[in-house]
């Protein structure tokens, strides 16, 4: 009985995922793969897989220690109360103390502090991170 050194996975019955360099018994492969012509290389059967259709999925997040703005308490992956859409129009700003805030939130905070603004989280003197 042949040993199988690979993981066989059917993804919506159209794609067989095999690590390159593994031998698979013909009786274990689906019919559409058995009809494919293997390309021998160094005594190992390599199968070529043609991907007919795929869907790209992506997401983004801000690289901040917290998940919410310490001023408005809105999530960083959303937007501040002054913005309508998240993303480049509502960026995060880091202070020298490494606390992050929405741009609009920290600008309002800094402009309301006299004489010297402090970080709303740790009360250190506020300086924008360079």
From TrEMBL:
GO terms for biological process: anaphase-promoting complex-dependent catabolic process; cell division. SUPFAM superfamilies: RING/U-box. PROSITE patterns: ZF_RING_2 (PS50089). Pfam families: zf-ANAPC11 (PF12861). The keyword Metal-binding applies. One of its GO terms (molecular function) is cullin family protein binding. This is Anaphase-promoting complex subunit 11.
